[in-house]
Amino acid sequence: MKIKLAFFVFGACLSLFQMSFQAQNPFDLKSSMARGQAIYETYCLSCHMDKGEGLEDVYPPLAKSDYLMADKKRSIRQVLYGVTGEINVNGKKYNTDMTGFDLTDQEASDVLNYIRNSWGNQGAAVTPAEVKAARQ
Asked: Taking a C-beta distance cutoff of 8 angstroms, is the pair 102, 94 a contact?
């Protein structure tokens, strides 16, 4: 009986320790952005260019992009599912389709954090939980 109680107490303490550890470790935006840069270079750079400047009249800029920064949820969905149809970015119209990407919640979070916080952009962090919610 004492052994069972000891295991129960140990398990409860371990659970409390894990919860307090998670609460003390907030989302690490810098690490997310570092991982996101590699994802950007793999999936996004060929169209949106090295510094997010895009290609005039073909691919919209991500750098200092009013469209990108206006709606975080829309940005998440577009990375996951793509974009079709005309969009207006920084006063210019673009009508080139973008494919969605088969990324994990963490990868989508990371690449969006890199894009939303590079080249003059300053945006709130995108968490994997927000990406997961956007999939539903």
From this structure: no
